[in-house]
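INTERNAL AUDIT FORM
Audit reference: QA-55
Scope: verify that the stored structure record matches its stored sequence.
Auditor: D.O.
Record contents follow.
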Amino acid sequence: MKRQKTLYDFASAKHIGLLCAPKNEADSVLLKDFLNRLSQKEIKYSVLGYIDKEEIPENLLYWKNIDFITQKDLNLFFIPDKNLVVKKFIDEPFDMVINCNLSNYFPLEYASQLSVAKCKVGIKRDGDSGYDLMIDISKERTVEYFLKNLEIYLSNLRNPK
């Protein structure tokens, strides 16, 4: 797979793809707040979420601009290969894909690594080099800590363009 790599920040990104796996209501609220801040910056976004269950919980069914996949969407190798939502996400030429998948769920890693996005941002993990920018959250492995640091770095990063 080939992609054109370009570094983006919040000032230059126009379209962001977000990968997430909200585990509880607190994570859901944090993610919604983050998406609201992206909207305020006039950044278009698309979200692909993974629920590690057979069904999507009722409180997540009505999220706007968010597609969820579940265990039912995976093949024997945990690949969501027949799911058109995942294929569309992978093929979308986002300026940036942000993977805030704390649990390292393979379906989201799969979508992140195959994405044609110009810039990929994720959580720093040992031996992981599939991202252009990695946020180290070893001090505090929470969605809140990741999003806070993500906003600090992507607000202060200056794109040379």
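Auditor finding: record pair retrieved intact. The mean pLDDT is 89.
Action required: none
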